[in-house]
Write a structure and sequence with these properties.
It comes from Flagellimonas eckloniae. The protein has 366 residues and is an alpha+beta fold. It has four domains: 10-16 and 82-169, Reverse transcriptase/Diguanylate cyclase domain (Alpha-Beta Plaits, 2-Layer Sandwich), CATH 3.30.70; 18-81, MutS, DNA mismatch repair protein, domain I (3-Layer(aba) Sandwich), CATH 3.40.1170.60; 174-230, 5' to 3' exonuclease, C-terminal subdomain (DNA polymerase, domain 1); 247-344, DNA polymerase, Y-family, little finger domain (Dna Ligase, domain 1, 2-Layer Sandwich), CATH 3.30.1490. It has 13 helices and twelve strands. The chain has helices spanning 18-26, 51-54, 64-70, 81-95, 124-139, 151-158, 174-180, 191-199, 205-209, 213-220, 223-230, 261-282, 314-325, and strands at 10-15, 35-38, 46-49, 75-77, 102-106, 109-113, 143-148, 166-168, 247-258, 286-295, 300-311, 334-344. The strands form three sheets. Strands 5-6-1-7-8 form a five-stranded mixed β-sheet. Strands 9-12-10-11 form a four-stranded antiparallel β-sheet. A three-stranded mixed β-sheet has the order 3-2-4. A hairpin with a 2-residue loop joins strand 5 and strand 6. It is globular. 35% of the residues are buried.
């Protein structure tokens, strides 16, 4: 069987429980114990959880008190972002030993295009294995990897043999792999979308593949075309070494709930100040400002305004945020405020010349 689109050799590398693993590595007393990075107070939120903690249902973004309820022996440690960034830079340096086509997604994961690599190794599987070993030797931490013909399949595959494992989906295996895949494993299908798909009788990739493009468009809007393509192994997005951010933001969770706009002004000023710092560091500005409000019952509200000019200074950010804050009455007391800027003035990267779609015999060495 032929795949009628360009094939690449893509590796998705994902560090295993990164923040928590760093803490366990730096403090041997934590090894083998359930660890959560973040706050364990009523106001705290889990940033990351060790695999020992995950067995009890502890996961990132979970409220600290719920995590402690699920796992009474859970050990909370404060995050050390400078340390995580330091190790992330060591890991990325290893990536660049093999290819300059590295697209970081966060501190702990990245895509690598090794179709042509600096080592001249034709096997992406062996390259991934070598990279993971180097990461272990350099940092003492484990990483998992997925290897396949595009970014979508590589990312899905990297989760298959976690922790400290890897999975290769060869070109001739792509179609069967996707057809057998649980719909919840599809990257881009969240909990809500999965529930909707279940109601429509879509449980596996094979079920999804049987739905027409028109059906998916009518039920999932813009995402319909994406689902239609990826289930057929089509995802032509190239690895982009310099990802252009779509938005820049800052937010704060408060120790005590705030019940009046007056009490929020000082908080908003601090957030605006941090956002200005981040914008200046990246030398960018934006036109669309969004105010994020999370209430004490965890419901989320956003209010946005698009300006006719770019802004990046604290004063203009704060003025617009205040206007949005007073736009309508608060629905409840507030536990979190955030400000973000989108519609940035980053230059659009020159479009890559389109690669011709060619029929390639499945003899691509992985």
């Amino acid at each position: 069987m032929d795949l009628d689109f360009p094939l690449r050799k893509i590796i998705h590398v994902d560090m295993d429980a990164f923040y928590a693993s760093v803490e366990q590595h730096d403090n041997p007393e934590l090894k083998g114990k359930p660890v959560a990075v973040g706050g364990g107070s009523k106001r705290g939120v889990v940033s990351a959880a060790s695999y020992e903690a995950r067995k009890f249902g502890v996961r990132s973004a979970m409220a600290g008190y719920i995590a402690r309820r699920n796992c009474p022996d859970l050990i909370f440690v404060k995050p050390r972002y400078d340390r995580y960034k330091e190790i992330s830079q060591q890991v990325r340096a290893i990536f660049f030993e093999y290819t300059d086509l590295v697209e970081p997604l966060s501190l702990d994961e990245a895509y690598l295009d090794v179709t042509e690599n600096k080592k001249g190794n034709p096997s992406a599987t062996l390259v991934a294995k070598e990279i993971r070993q180097k990461i272990l030797d350099k940092t003492g931490l484990t990483a998992s990897a997925g290897i396949s013909i595009n970014k979508f399949i590589a990312k899905v595959a990297s989760d298959y043999n976690k922790p400290n494992g890897q999975k290769t989906v060869n070109p001739e295996e792509v179609i069967q792999f996707l057809e057998e895949l649980d719909i919840r494993k599809f990257y881009g299908v969240g909990k809500v979308t999965a529930e909707k798909m279940y109601k429509l009788g879509i449980f596996t990739g094979k079920d999804l593949k049987q739905k027409s493009l028109e059906f998916l468009d009518s039920n999932f809007g813009k995402s319909g075309k994406y689902y239609y393509s990826v289930v057929r192994g089509i995802h032509n997005s190239a690895v982009k070494p310099h990802r252009i951010p779509k938005s820049v933001g800052a937010e704060r969770t408060f120790f005590e709930n705030l019940s009046s706009e007056i009490f929020m002004l000082e908080k908003l000023e601090n957030i605006a100040n941090e956002l200005e710092r981040r914008l200046q560091k990246s030398k960018i500005a934006g036109k669309t400002l969004t105010l994020k409000i999370k209430y004490s019952d965890f419901t989320l509200q956003t209010r946005s305004k698009t300006l006719p000019y770019f802004i990046s200074t604290k004063e203009l950010i704060l003025d617009t945020a205040k206007e949005l804050l007073y736009q309508s009455n608060l629905e409840n007391s507030v536990r979190l405020l955030g400000i973000s800027l989108a519609n940035l003035n980053t230059e659009k990267k020159k479009e890559e010349p389109k690669k011709e779609s060619v029929s390639v015999q499945l003899e691509f060495d992985f």
